[in-house]
Write a structure and sequence with these properties.
six-stranded mixed beta sheet; about 40% helix; alpha/beta
Length: about 450
């Protein structure tokens, strides 16, 4: 496991293909002295220079059995104001892959070793520069392909959740200390209110976990479902939003027999759009095919686009469908090119008493394209608002669930016979789960597995 060494490390930090400029990174206690060996940069080993500086000079690179001077730009960064909190340097050279590999060989010959995947970020974590969740967000940022993914990763890098995790851990540690005191001193009695404190903490954790799970930290895009009665024009609207004939369109009822999902980017925001079978109030919720179940399959989506045929009057089927909706709903009045018989306020009134939140309404025509661009922008705006923070990743959510379960079991032990030893053990495990959320308490092998997924040079 190279991650736990204190070697000086170096690696190419730019993509492997040719480019105008390439970069190498160097970090470690002797990094600046190694830099001095391979360049004309005047750096004394162990320098305490107070600030970073940019130096144009020459790097001596072994090529074809000879040492070749190559023009380079050096960014010299003394500790601790660096990414790894160690002395660091970046070397910018022409972006020729063979040249960069030869430059890395020069750094290794001077005393560094090639860095393992993610080792620079691991050192930032190990030296307290960032938490484990932030380190994982670095990798998510590097691998992001959409604006939404980048926004989530950057938000997680802000570590706004670190204070909450530490507060929960401190609260649980305080409760654990109070229970341990009773075990250690026979004349001590269990303070009243501990069970209530544990119950409140468990409730907070449950609410936080549920909220973070709903925000889907590991999903690339929000799920947007088109749903409504048969022949409301959902499939035509689906095709219009995608800009292609992705699904079959027919005047026959129930042409769509199953949900069809496509990923698409609207205004730099990635969403997963789905076309769903028409809703049938007589068979919804029963077994059978998807067309019979209709809109009941949209429960796992973040937003439902309730597609209403505005050219017809509302009836009992619309009332039944509206009452089945839950979560965020954007009302889409389709067929606006025809004579309008249903207004937005009439359809919106059907949601009164339903477990749904109306997010707005918009009139479109899938046939003529009117309003489609505005609908795309509104979908992007709503999806982006749901992705406002980075969320916790799967590892963090599992640790949070474990801590919550420990609180629950400890409270249960205290409430049924006061078996303090078992309660204290549960509380110790809960504190450890919070510590692991912040990256503490993991075995070296587990941390190595996490960081080995990272890119080389990061």
């Amino acid at each position: 496991m190279p991650y736990f060494s204190h070697d000086d490390i170096a690696q190419i930090g730019t993509p492997s293909g040719p480019s105008p400029v390439g970069a190498l990174r160097l970090s470690g206690d002797n990094a600046l002295a190694i830099l001095a060996q391979v360049s004309d940069v005047a750096v004394t080993a162990g320098t305490d220079s107070p600030s970073r500086r940019v130096v144009d000079g020459v790097m001596r690179i072994p090529l074809a059995g000879d040492v070749v001077p190559c023009p380079a730009r050096f960014l010299v960064m003394p500790a601790p104001a660096t990414y790894t909190r160690e002395p660091m340097a970046e070397i910018h050279l022409p972006g020729s892959p063979p040249l960069l590999r030869a430059a890395l060989t020069a750094l290794v010959d001077a005393g560094a070793r090639p860095a393992a995947p993610g080792e620079f970020t691991f050192r930032a974590f190990r030296n307290g520069r960032i938490g484990l969740g932030q380190a994982e967000a670095v990798e998510r940022l590097i691998r992001s392909t959409t604006e939404a993914e980048r926004r989530q990763a950057l938000s997680r890098l802000g570590d706004r959740d670190g204070a909450a995790i530490r507060r929960w851990r401190d609260d649980l540690f305080d409760i654990a200390a109070r229970v341990e005191a009773v075990l250690d001193f026979a004349d001590e009695e269990l303070e009243p209110g501990i069970e209530a404190d544990l119950a409140r903490l468990a409730q907070q954790l449950a609410a936080s976990a549920a909220g973070r799970a709903e925000r889907g930290p590991e999903r690339a895009g929000r799920r947007i479902a088109l749903a409504g009665l048969t022949n409301a024009g959902k499939s035509s609207l689906f095709n219009a939003l995608l800009g292609e004939d992705a699904v079959l369109v027919s005047e026959d009822a129930s042409t769509t027999r199953d949900s069809i999902r496509r990923r698409v980017v609207f205004d730099t925001v990635e969403v997963e759009l789905s076309d769903n079978p028409g809703f049938d109030p007589d068979t919804a919720g029963q077994g059978g095919d998807a067309a019979a179940r209709g809109g009941t399959a949209t429960g796992g989506d973040d937003i439902v686009l309730w597609v209403v045929d505005a050219s017809r009057h509302l009836d009992a089927q619309d009332v039944a469908f509206a009452s089945s909706l839950t979560g965020g709903v954007l009302l889409v009045l389709n067929k606006s090119d025809l004579r309008t018989r249903t207004e937005a306020r009439q359809a919106a009134s059907l949601l009164d008493g339903a477990e749904a939140t109306l997010l707005g309404d918009i009139a479109v025509s899938a046939a003529t394209g009117d309003g489609i661009a505005a609908l795309r922008s509104e979908i992007a705006r709503l999806a982006a608002s749901l992705s406002g923070d980075g969320g916790w990743n799967r590892r963090e959510l599992l640790e949070l669930a474990a801590a919550r379960e420990c609180c629950r079991r400890a409270a249960e032990e205290l409430a049924h016979g006061g078996r303090l030893e078992l309660a204290a053990e549960e509380l110790r495990h809960g504190v450890l789960s919070f510590s692991r959320m912040m990256g503490e308490g993991y075995a070296e092998e587990a941390l190595g597995r996490i960081f080995s997924r990272f890119c080389i040079g990061k």
